[in-house]
Design a protein that fits this description.
378 residues, alpha/beta, Rossmann fold, Glycerate kinase, domain 2, 2 domains, 6-stranded mixed sheet, 5-stranded parallel sheet, 13 strands, 20% strand, elongated
Length: 378
């Protein structure tokens, strides 16, 4: 029996690789002779670099860059394909997890550090950049990236505006004459797991601003300044991206990127699955086990379990999902996932849930395997 284990991370408790190990331990108690194939996954957010490096040959780099609140941070990224491809996560330099909850402020948070990582990759001579957009602390529509790569965002007096989303209200003109000379030479793929537009009630500020610390008043203000940035950008690019799918990701970061690069936006999970040749890994499998920390209606929006389950179903492979928590409105998931299981034993506080994640996932996997064996015997 070939069993492919392909989960995402269980946020704040287990990496995708650790989740694979727990699931195998639980299953192997019941099916010790099975062939277990690990395929740890990510969908373009935190952990994407680590996941791709586990499946592909590459080299980790570390760079000291500007963090989301203009403080220095040590950010990791990677080179693949003998230095031809750079893997970068916005979360590494401009991520929400770099801040304490009390520090979160999308009015001043900047993507400048992510721009510094991109600049370093360009200086290395890469021909392809893959940027994962999950987990950002920012709402500056990629303005910091533009600034880091030599673009000038000027106010009405011709002076450069400050960094951060709120500063965009003063933007009058954009000068791209001094941007990095290699920007247009690279193949630039933006990996994200949302399709939200740039502005409006389903856009970057309204949907994602509150989790980054924005009050209702600030959300409205940020939506207005991002709209203003888009209007000024239109004079440079001649393309209106206010309602372009995916441009609401990471606080609107694709807008700034589009001023510098010829970007291609792709679902993060599809980029990862293709890079790791997931279809070949799944071939001749008898069962796929996937999962993530919480499965709910958002799982349908390009998250890891849904993406890998679709690939498995196309080959007629049964799919089981394990999640720390099963949320609401997951009925549509059953079109590709045959059964889903939560791991939390009883009502618990978050600290206890996170601390017991390894044991909970292992035990749940063992119980699922035992149920399968009973079914085989009946």
């Amino acid at each position: 029996m070939k069993i492919v284990i392909a989960p995402d991370s269980f946020k704040e408790s287990l990496t995708a690789k650790q989740a694979c190990e727990c699931i195998e331990i639980g299953f192997s108690e019941v099916f010790p002779q099975a062939e277990y194939v690990h395929l740890p996954l990510a969908d373009g957010g935190e952990g994407t670099v680590d996941v791709l490096l586990q499946g592909l040959k590459g080299e980790i780099k570390q760079s000291r860059v500007m963090g989301p609140l203009n403080e220095p941070v040590l950010a990791s990224w990677a080179l693949l394909d003998e230095g031809k491809t750079a893997l970068i996560e916005i979360a590494s330099a401009s991520g929400l997890d770099l801040l304490e909850p009390s520090q979160r402020d999308p009015a001043i948070a900047t993507t400048y550090g992510t721009g510094e990582l991109i600049r370093e990759a360009l200086d290395f001579g890469v021909s392809k950049i893959l940027l994962g957009l999950g987990g950002s602390a920012t709402n500056d529509a990629g303005a910091g990236i533009v600034q880091a790569l030599g673009g000038k965002l000027l106010d009405g007096d011709g002076k450069e505006i400050d960094r951060g989303g709120a500063a965009l209200s003063k933007l009058a003109t954009i000068d791209l004459s001094s941007v990095h000379p290699r920007c247009k030479e690279v193949h630039f793929i933006v990996a994200c797991d949302v399709s939200n537009p740039l502005v409006g009630e389903t856009g970057a500020s309204y949907v994602f601003g509150p989790q980054k610390g924005a009050s209702p008043k600030l959300v409205e203000s940020l939506d207005n300044v991002v709209q203003h940035f888009a209007n000024i950008s239109l004079l440079t690019s001649s393309i209106d991206h206010c309602h372009s799918a995916g441009f609401g990701a990471a606080g609107g970061t694709p807008l700034g990127l589009s001023l510098l690069f010829n970007i291609t936006i792709q679902p993060g999970i599809e980029v990862v699955l293709d890079s790791l040749n997931a279809d070949n890994v799944l071939r001749n499998a008898d069962l796929l086990i996937t999962g993530e920390g919480q499965m709910d209606n958002q799982t349908l929006q390009g998250k890891t379990p849904f993406g890998i389950a679709q690939r498995a179903k196309s080959q007629g492979i049964p799919v089981i999902a394990i999640a720390g928590c099963i949320g609401k409105e997951i009925e549509e998931l059953y079109s590709v996932i045959d059964a889903s299981f939560g791991t939390v034993r009883s009502p618990q506080d978050l600290k206890q849930v996170l601390g017991e994640a390894r044991d909970n996932v292992t035990r749940t996997a063992r119980n699922i395997a035992a149920s399968i064996k009973i079914g085989m015997q009946l």
